[in-house]
């Protein structure tokens, strides 16, 4: 089932032969270490990847370069946090001298990977998000390209998203844009839980949140059911703002249903399920979103680079859950409200 | 209220712009709160809405919430619009602060009020950027003065506690102000009730309608005639031309061929009646539900024995026989889009939420469970003019068992399936409730009833037709497919459950109705 979540993240992508699967001898050489890292390993696989990178393995260089960025999707692990700055830099970066290092993304040995590494390094600076998004798309980092486009809209810059050239595979036909297009074109604007659950577009959660972002200017609020408004409230990480008669079980069950299509949500539901172990913690999913400040953070938990780790492999991995758990742990210290979920309390330890 | 199939709220930037199809040119629309920027090729601007071609296709943007930049932006005069709202002082003083504040909020802005000890004189509505959108002058006097002001073009909207009278209607039409009884120019925006009040030290708790008429006609002058200790009855009333007294006259006095006694000492208003009566154990007066605070409300028992106390629910359903509708009227010449937008706002959910916070009764939906509907079963038995069988009663009880009744109640013209003015607005209101609420695992029952005029079997058929009519009207008003998942059933029970006495026109009008009930569907265990 999780394999089907691939399309949840990359809906509308035209199959690109260089994207379809990790390929090449360099990839093959590091695959065991990648798999170990995805399974939750840290010191051993990262050390092996560092050795491979130092030996000229460009796949390892790209991957370490992204992990070094120390933000999701690389994620901070307990192991990395335990290292000194110097130890960490020498593990994840290219050594120039004893005391100086540089991101592998800026020092790729393989010239053919420079466009990719530049795109991966540059988009976080976010000076020209749609240009960044196009650069990622051109480097076959489709998930990252869509992430940038979605966050650009979420930042209130639909005007920039509107500049995406038509017929840009993976971007102009991104799932959330397709969802929005379909919604806008239909005379029936009513959105309720049943309609959302019956919708087969895997990007419907992203689409819903995106249209919600524009709803006020488009006078669409009147068509959103109370349950959808509650759902959006929770997805925005504002569970505390729910009305007293909001049904937490219904919301939880809806999120679990949506997670069958939505890869980022699936990480969260898997994490909560791993804690619940058969017993229901009705607040785990919603309070986790609360702590990490919403779906947008969840969206950032994705493969460091599709060139090395396909999106669906990452979403299905333990690494994804570890990264999410780390995000919860690092945010809970700033969370002002009472932790009502026993699972979230356990994640925070 | 806007029809739901019209997905756009028609508003304007308070400018004179004619509708135009412009050559597609780039525009950048920035929300007034700075939270969103939308660009695209402008396909159409009608002064109220931008239609823009974007990566999503053509989308429609509320022009009142954005500023336009770019070569494609239409030339718009950026002036603040003005209007005057006139009418009943009590209503304006209470509602205008609530309404204008909430109206401004819907535009993403805020309101600033000028008020004095005499009341509110002006409200300015601004957007988030501080730009003035609408300047509202308030002439709070009487509804009659408001209609006069409207006919002279000095006000654009009037609030009134009663429907426009025939003379006023004719005068307004002849002065070019339009058809004040059309849906476009007349709205019911709230409710109140005319209530009979006495001092809390007076033992009277209920009075028959006939006796009540005789009291206010001066035919019963001593409390002993009503079975109470001897003392002369003192009547408190405001001007008999005012809405409160007028409604009482129309419903209670005139059908009995009676008039107010001629030497009533009037007081200044409904609140003054409440205060005066509260102080006087020998007093009795007519006030309003919204203004009654110090005095005690006396129930009125109909000639058939039915007695409906004035509560927010019975007023909301208009089953309280002296329910008073609050109207808003708009000058047909007041075609400025923001004025139209404000008028449309008045019976919107947002406005009605505010109404329910006031002492008046809003049109928003509330519920009452079956346990609180005991009157229904008494009313089926007590009146002698109703043909009812035990099987019919049982059938009705079975269908309504464990169901909650919504306050939305549709009423009809005599022997007709035509909805009255409020009912037409309530169709949209109920559709909104159904499509945005959680009605999965629920069934909605539209239950028709009639008055007792005519044969019972014909009334049975008429009640079913009325329920069907409402059902069809709901489907017609709702966006295509939006009600598909909701089970809505239409049924009728004829004349068997009167909630008012059929002996009067008013009572029969109350009885001609379709009620809305909601029941949980209980699934059999698998």
Give the overall average pLDDT of chain B: 87
SSE pattern of chain A: HHHHHHEEHHHHHHHHHHHHHHH
Shape of chain A: globular
Strand content of chain A: under 5%
Give the proportion of residues in helices of chain A: 55-70%
What does this structure look like?
The complex is a heterodimer of chains A (about 350) and B (about 525). Helices cover about 55% and strands about 0% of the residues of chain A. Chain A has helices spanning about 5-10, 25-40, 45-55, 60-70, 80, 85-90, 115-120, 130-140, 140-155, 160, 175-185, 195-200, 205-220, 225-235, 250-260, 265-275, 285-290, 295-300, 310-315, 320-330, 340-345, and strands spanning about 95, 100. Chain A is globular, with a radius of gyration of 20 Å. Chain B is of the alpha+beta class and about 525 residues long. In chain B, about 30% of the residues lie in helices and about 25% in strands. Chain B contains 14 helices and 21 strands. Chain B is globular.
In short:
The complex is a heterodimer of chains A (349) and B (526). Chain A has 21 helices and 2 strands.
Keywords:
heterodimer; A: mainly alpha; two-stranded antiparallel ribbon; 57% helix; B: 526 residues; 11-stranded mixed beta sheet
Strand-helix topology:
The complex is a heterodimer of chains A (349) and B (526).
Chain A (H helix, E strand, L loop, with lengths): L5 H5 L14 H14 L4 H12 L3 H11 L9 H5 L2 H8 L1 E2 L5 E2 L11 H9 L6 H10 L3 H13 L3 H4 L13 H11 L7 H6 L5 H15 L7 H10 L12 H12 L3 H14 L7 H8 L3 H5 L11 H5 L2 H15 L9 H6 L2
Antiparallel strand pairs in A: 1-2
Chain B lengths: L24 E7 L5 E9 L3 E6 L2 E6 L3 E4 L11 E8 H18 L3 E7 L2 E8 L5 E10 L1 H9 L5 E4 L5 H9 L11 E13 L7 E3 H8 L17 E3 L6 H11 L16 H10 L3 E6 L7 E6 L10 H5 L6 E8 L6 H9 L3 H9 L9 E3 L4 H8 L8 H11 L2 E9 L9 H16 L5 E8 L6 H22 L9 E6 L12 H7 L1 E8 L6
Parallel strand pairs in B: 6-9, 6-10, 12-15, 13-14, 19-20
Antiparallel strand pairs in B: 1-2, 1-5, 2-3, 3-4, 7-8, 8-9, 10-16, 11-14, 11-15, 11-16, 17-18, 18-21, 19-21
Helix pairs in contact in B: 1-9, 2-3, 12-13
């Amino acid at each position: 089932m999780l394999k089907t979540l691939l399309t949840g993240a990359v809906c509308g992508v035209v199959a690109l032969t260089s994207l379809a699967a990790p390929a090449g001898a360099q990839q093959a050489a590091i695959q065991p270490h990648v798999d170990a890292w995805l399974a939750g390993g840290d010191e051993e696989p990262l050390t092996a990847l560092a050795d491979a990178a130092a030996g000229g393995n460009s796949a390892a260089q790209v991957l370490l370069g992204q992990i070094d960025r120390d933000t999701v999707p690389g994620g901070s692990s307990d192991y990395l946090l335990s290292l000194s700055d110097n130890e960490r830099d020498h593990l994840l970066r290219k050594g120039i001298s004893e005391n100086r290092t540089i991101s592998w993304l800026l020092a790729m040995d393989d010239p053919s990977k420079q466009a990719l590494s530049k795109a991966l390094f540059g988009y976080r600076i976010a000076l020209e998000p749609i240009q960044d998004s196009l650069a990622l798309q051109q480097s076959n980092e489709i998930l990252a390209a869509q992430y940038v486009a979605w966050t650009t809209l979420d930042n209130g810059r639909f005007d920039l998203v509107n500049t995406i050239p038509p017929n840009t595979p993976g971007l102009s036909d991104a799932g959330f844009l397709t969802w929005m297009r379909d919604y806008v074109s239909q005379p029936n604007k009513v959105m309720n839980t049943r309609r959302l659950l019956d919708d087969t577009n895997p990007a419907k959660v992203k689409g819903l949140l995106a249209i919600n972002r524009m709803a006020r200017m488009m006078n669409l609020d009147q068509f959103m059911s109370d349950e959808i408004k509650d759902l959006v409230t929770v997805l925005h990480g504002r569970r505390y703002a729910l009305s007293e008669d909001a049904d937490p079980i219904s919301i939880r069950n809806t999120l679990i249903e949506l997670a069958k299509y939505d890869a980022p949500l699936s990480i969260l539901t898997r994490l909560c399920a791993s804690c619940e172990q058969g017993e229901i913690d009705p607040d785990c999913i919603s309070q986790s979103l609360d702590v990490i400040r919403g779906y947008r953070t969840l969206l950032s938990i994705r493969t460091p680079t599709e060139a090395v780790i396909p999106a669906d492999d990452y979403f299905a991995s333990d690494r994804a859950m570890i990264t999410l758990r780390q995000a919860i742990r690092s945010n809970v210290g700033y969370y002002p409200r009472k932790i009502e979920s026993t699972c979230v309390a356990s994640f925070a330890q | 209220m806007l029809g739901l199939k019209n997905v756009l709220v028609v508003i304007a930037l308070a400018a004179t712009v004619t509708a135009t199809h412009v050559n597609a040119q780039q525009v950048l629309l920035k929300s007034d709160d700075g939270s969103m920027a939308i660009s695209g090729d402008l396909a159409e601007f009608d002064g109220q809405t931008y239609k823009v071609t974007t990566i999503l296709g053509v989308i429609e943007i509320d022009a009142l919430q954005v500023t336009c930049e770019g070569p494609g932006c239409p030339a718009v005069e950026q002036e603040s619009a003005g209007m005057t709202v006139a009418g009943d002082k009590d209503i304006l003083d209470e509602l205008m602060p609530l309404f204008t504040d909430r109206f401004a909020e819907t535009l993403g802005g805020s309101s600033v009020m000028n008020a004095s000890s005499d009341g509110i004189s002006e409200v300015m509505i601004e957007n988030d950027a501080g730009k003035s959108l609408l300047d509202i002058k308030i002439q709070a006097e009487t509804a009659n003065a408001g209609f006069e002001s409207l006919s002279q073009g000095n006000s654009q909207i009037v609030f009134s506690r009663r429907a426009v009278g025939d003379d006023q209607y004719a005068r307004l039409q002849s002065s070019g102000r339009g058809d004040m009884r059309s849906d476009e120019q007349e709205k019911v925006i709230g409710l109140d009730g005319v209530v009979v009040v006495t001092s809390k030290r007076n033992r009277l708790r209920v009075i028959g309608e006939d006796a009540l008429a005789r009291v206010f006609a001066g035919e019963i002058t001593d409390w002993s005639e009503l079975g109470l200790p001897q003392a002369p009855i003192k009547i408190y009333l405001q001007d008999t031309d005012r809405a409160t007294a007028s409604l009482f006259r129309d419903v209670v006095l005139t059908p009995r061929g009676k008039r107010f006694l001629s030497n009533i000492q009037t007081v200044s208003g409904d609140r003054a009646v409440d205060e005066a009566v509260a102080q006087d154990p020998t007093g009795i007066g007519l006030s309003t539900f919204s203004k009654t605070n110090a005095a005690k409300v006396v129930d009125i028992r109909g000639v058939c024995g039915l007695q409906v106390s004035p509560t927010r629910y019975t007023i909301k359903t208009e089953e309280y026989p002296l329910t008073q509708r609050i109207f808003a009227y708009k000058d047909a010449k007041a075609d400025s889009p923001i004025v139209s937008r404000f008028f449309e706002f008045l019976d919107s959910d947002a406005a009605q939420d505010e109404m329910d916070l006031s002492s008046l009764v809003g049109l928003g939906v509330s519920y009452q469970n079956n346990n609180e509907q005991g009157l229904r079963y008494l009313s089926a038995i007590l009146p002698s003019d109703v043909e009812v069988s035990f099987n019919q009663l049982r059938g009705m009880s079975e269908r309504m068992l464990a169901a909650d009744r919504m306050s939305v109640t549709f009423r009809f013209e005599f022997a007709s399936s035509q909805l009255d003015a409020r009912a037409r607005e309530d169709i949209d209101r109920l559709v909104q409730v159904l499509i945005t609420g959680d009605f999965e695992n629920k069934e909605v029952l539209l239950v028709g009833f009639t008055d007792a005029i005519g044969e019972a079997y014909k009334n049975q058929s008429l009640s079913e037709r009325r329920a069907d009519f409402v059902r069809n009207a709901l489907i017609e008003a709702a966006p295509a497919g939006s009600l598909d998942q909701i089970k809505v059933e239409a049924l009728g029970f004829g004349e068997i459950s009167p909630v008012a006495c059929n002996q009067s026109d008013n009572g029969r009008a109350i009885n001609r109705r379709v009620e809305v009930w909601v029941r949980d569907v209980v699934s059999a265990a698998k």
